[in-house]
Amino acid sequence: MNLFKEVADIKTADQLNLPAPEVEYHNVVAQPTEQQQQMVQSLSERATQVHNGNVDPSVDNMLKITSDGRKLGLDQRIINPLLTDAPGSKVNLCVENILRTWKDGESEKLTQLVFCDISTPQKNSGKGDNFTVYQDIRQKLIDRGMPASQIAFIHDANTEVRKKELFAKVRSGQVRVLLGSTSKMGAGTNVQDRLVALHDLDCPWRPGDLAQRKGRIERQGNQNPLVHVYRYVTEGTFDAYLWQTVENKQKFISQIMTSKSPVRSCDDMDETALSFAEIKALCAGDPRIKERMDLDVEVSKLKLMKADFQSKRYRLEDRVIKQFPEEIGQLKGCIAGLNSDIQTAQSHPHPKDGFIGLEVKGKLYSQKEEAGAALLKACKSVATNQAVKIGSYRGFQLSASFNPFDAALVVWMKGAMTHEVALGTDPRGNLIRMDNALANIPQKLKKVEAQLDNLYRQQQAAKEEMGKSFPFEDELKEKSARLVELDTLLNLSKPEELTCLDDSPQDTPDPAESPEGPDWDE
Fold this sequence. Notes:
Blueprint: H1 2-7, H2 13-16, E1 22-30, H3 34-51, H4 62-74, H5 90-104, E2 111-115, H6 133-143, E3 151-153, H7 160-172, E4 177-180, H8 182-185, E5 195-200, H9 207-215, E6 226-234, H10 239-254, H11 276-283, H12 287-347, E7 358-360, E8 363-365, H13 368-380, E9 388-393, E10 396-403, E11 408-414, E12 418-422, H14 427-439, H15 441-466, H16 473-489
Parallel strand pairs: 1-6, 2-4, 2-5, 3-4, 5-6
Antiparallel strand pairs: 7-8, 7-9, 9-10, 10-11, 11-12
């Protein structure tokens, strides 16, 4: 992961601080009907038959069972249109929230999006009894007083021109409720201007789809400071576990696409069907499934914290073993050099009320005015940024160079260390500047000694920090052991491989990728 970070420049939303609205999440839980509960149990029986090899994979398999579980979690009428319309179903709870938000935003013509990848509008199949969630929601909204012209399906805009017209109507508030699937209403749908609520009726398979959904409302250009995202779950069905599956997939992505310290490896979480053990545990209402879901999240967080802790420790080890000794050695050498230069300057003082003299290009000048003029003339002849020797002064070799960045002439006085002096136009003033630079060497020495003391303190603190262990190590071991124990008890250690003839996950396209919309109503 660290190698990937060396070639990839990752910027996440928490780093960009874009002006997007605040999002308030609402988890809406629907209670299952007695018929739904019975059908969930039948899924368990089907899973047992598939697991035991009693059914041909082309007739039934785990992927089909998972698909039926998703349909059942949305609305039992998708399985059989003759079943009752439960007042407390996800669809009806969603309709209530849409109507309440529609009435509250009437004055500002606020808009809403409804995402559903299952039971999408289909082309006319010649049957008059085809049930779709889309049509059901639309009819219920109309029956409750919402004008039909304010409700639209993204599927009706089957050309780019129609899409642009529809999006313009949503932005202006003419269409206030837009229903669609992730594939048709995800990336490229810029209708955020008046959006105040988004409804996730079902859970998509890919975390990228969920991010695309949320990205339609949590977006620059939204006039609302606070927006709402409703996510609907039917208790006792596959819904809760499907949301957990998406979270696991997102954790895999987040291990790489993160602004924090990445882990050293990551696990593939791209299963598209639940295993036999998962289905059995869900259908039986096994509380250990919930415990495992919570533990999985906690262990992942602790592992990420430990990876960050170890990353910091490795950096400290590098500093203690290599960087600190190098920096300490450099500062000690600097201190020795400055002490030597102090001695050199003290052993070459000016005579009382006199001038020690300045040597320029082999000639000694004993008068300040002449010495300063000769120095300035010699420096002016230097046209390169490379130091050129021009003489000596008070036991220090003199070199001159031209600094093109500041357009300045510079004199370098070299003893054990090198001291820089920027020249001015006054010949006598330049000599005073050089004397001041030598007089300031003791001040430099104090600063370097303070840096050395601070470096020693940092080195000691780093050594003490290296001796510490990860503070949550015991908790991580305990929860990891319990997670392994639960996986063994629930038989989740090795997900069952699917062997399907015409309906394998590898050959079956993701429903959200179908150009005509997911065909869940077969």
